[in-house]
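User: Mind token order:
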Amino acid sequence: MRYLIGIDYGGTKTDCVIANFDPEILFSASTAGGNLLKVGFEKASLNILSSIEKCLENTNIKYEDVDLVLIGSAGAGRKEDSDKLLNELKRITDFKNIKITTDAHIALEGAFSGKPGCILIAGTGSIIYGKDKEEKLYRIGGFGRLIGDQGGGYSIGRKGLIVVSKQLDGWGNNTKITNLICDKFKIKNKEDLISKVYGNRVSIPEAAPLVIEAAKADDKTAIIILNEESDELIEQITAMKKKLNEEKLNLAFTGSLIQNKNYYSNLLRKKIKEELPFVEVTEAEHPPAVGAVLLSKKYLADGK
């Protein structure tokens, strides 16, 4: 029997599934992830390999029985980075057929099982990916944490940490965000904050759920942050409608910040309902890693 492997490689974790051609999911595994440019291509490849080996070991499937490994990765839209990751994976594995695409592409494929639609991803970063009836792909956002990723974990977490820095410095608003972030990262004072942030001992995206937690507790500063960030996503959804030129948009949420119900995802859904009547928010049919399996099957059928 022949098999397919689909992988969702993200800034926080790597999700891997192995399936037959039905496609029936035989096993799934999660391991560490990491931004390609931050952890490097060798480390990213080892993270991916670790998830693959878990799947192979638990199913007793051999390398040579896998027809295609398809990886969706944040940052893979940059061909130079995609090629570097592909070359490193070919160096450390025995797979003959490996393909790499964006994390947004596999999320879209999974959300609508290959049908037209849009996917809004808000995890570590953010991006909107859309596909029309002719299977043409469109994207809004995805510029990375330095100049983009509005509405994602890095942007929200960064704003949360800025609030903490102001309060520790004696001139910011009193906010629940400060205690939540200081407790999680064991920050004692402003010198400690500086040391840990710039010493990479604070994961900025991991501060985002704490901002959401504070907003749920009716913290005004947190609510302002989430309103600002959700407004950015509303603008991006509107821009996607113009690109697709469709009367209605089917939109699915994915990514750690919005795929489950919480204050932030509920706020975003409320704004969409009130401001964007042309959007119908639907549940994703499959997670991104399964989307990678569906896409790999399509690639093989098309002879790609």
Observations:
- The chain has two domains: 3-111+287-301, 115-283.
- The chain has a mean pLDDT of 92.
- The first helix runs from residue 36 to 39.
